Amino acid sequence: MLTKRIIPCLDIKDGRTVKGVQFEGLRDAGDPVALAARYAREGADELVFLDITATNQKRATLIALVRDVARELDIPFTVGGGIGSIADVEALLMNGADKVSINSAGLARPELINELAARFGSQCIVVAADARYNAADGWQVYTRAGTNNTGRNAVDWCREAADRGAGEILLTSMSNDGTKDGFALDITGAVSRAVTIPVIASGGAGSKQDFTNVFQQAQADAGLAASIFHFGEIGIRELKEHLRQDGIPMRL
Amino acid sequence: MEIAVVDYKGGNVQSVLFALERLGVQATLTADHDVLRRADKVLFPGEGEAASAMRELRAQGLHELLPTLTQPFLGICLGMQLLGRHTEEGGGTDMLGILPFDVVRFTAAGPEHKIPHMGWNNLQQLRSPLFEGLQAADFVYFVHSYYAPVGDYTIAEAEYPAPFSAAVQHENFYAVQFHTEKSGPVGTRILENFLKL
Fold this sequence. Notes:
The complex is a heterodimer.
Chain A: E1 5-13, E2 16-18, H1 32-42, E3 47-51, H2 58-72, E4 77-80, H3 86-94, E5 99-102, H4 104-108, H5 111-120, E6 125-134, E7 138-143, E8 148-153, H6 154-163, E9 168-173, H7 185-194, E10 199-202, H8 208-218, E11 222-225, H9 227-230, H10 236-245
Parallel strand pairs in A: 1-3, 1-11, 3-4, 4-5, 5-6, 6-9, 9-10, 10-11
Antiparallel strand pairs in A: 1-2, 6-7, 7-8
Chain B: E1 3-6, H1 13-22, E2 27-30, H2 33-38, E3 41-44, H3 50-59, H4 62-65, E4 73-76, H5 78-81, E5 86-87, E6 93-94, E7 102-105, E8 117-122, E9 139-144, E10 146-147, E11 154-159, E12 163-170, E13 173-176, H6 184-196
Parallel strand pairs in B: 1-2, 1-3, 3-4, 4-13, 5-7
Antiparallel strand pairs in B: 5-6, 7-10, 8-9, 11-12, 12-13
Keywords (chain B): Amino-acid biosynthesis, Cytoplasm, Glutamine amidotransferase, Histidine biosynthesis, Hydrolase, Lyase
InterPro entries (chain B): Class_I_gatase-like, GATASE, Imidazole-glycPsynth_HisH
Subcellular location (chain B): Cytoplasm
């Protein structure tokens, strides 16, 4: 039976993990390679690396990091953040990334999704959508790290991305991100029902029950979180055991 | 031991090279027919789309060479599907025909069965030295939209939701649908077992 996936997300700046990581037993908590290896040992099903570097050195640093991670890691990982061209994707995949996540560039020029899927296969093209709710317009998609409202309806955009050849949707609720009040069940469920590709839910995880809810009530295929894992608030194994007890298929 | 990985621009070979490196094995990425013929083991990874993979194999004459190889051979993911006769992918594509299966697309069966079949699924009905030391409940990582049905050549199955071939074998040709290079310690063990064949 196919299991639901638990995915820690590491924010990367200049080749280092940021957003704060508090781990015992890691000599250098900012080292993405050491952190990735630790999560893999603890039972993470995949990892996501989100590059938030904003300098010209960006690509070279990121590619070196991807290579270092790929050398060590025996589970799949996705790299996202500022990916805008076939050449960007090729460089990441050539150096060992398993998937890439496209966000702003896909909204700016949706044909890019078709081109990437045709060139590399849908299986490695994740389309990330950052959605925020407001009472007047519902769930809309934002780009450029959440600063720009595209005016696109989140469900419509995810459906279009899937039709254009995305292999997976990474749906982040900006309205829930950082709240620890749980995932956005309504929009996650709506997207999951609208597309036939897997959906990763992101934003708002604060408890083990939040993951149970997003799998049981919103049909998410994977749950992604950052700080609750980085700060050791919830251990990955402990979370997966809890979910299995709730009847959710888990790899343990 | 000489290990060759077939180079036909078939996607993420780097992960396979790194997985071998973690096992202390230095592999050669090559399309050179002599090197491939001479190698003690040949790995044939693949991702992406079958028709363009076949075009590249034909361009390099590999469609004629690969079926003649006699050493232990391991296809991975698309590298497994390409060993079959025909696939529905790309409007219908003829493939290497080393194994007698035809590859078909999963049909969507509701929100619990998305396509691609992506993630960790457990192996069942293990019947090969490739799976020495594994248990039937062990999980491996899959990413695919097309599959080979179960047949006499099947040496492991998985379900999504119906059983399909998770691994196949004919003589020296072994192949796995999952990414053994990305399947944690279970995948590493399968690679080790292959290197011992």
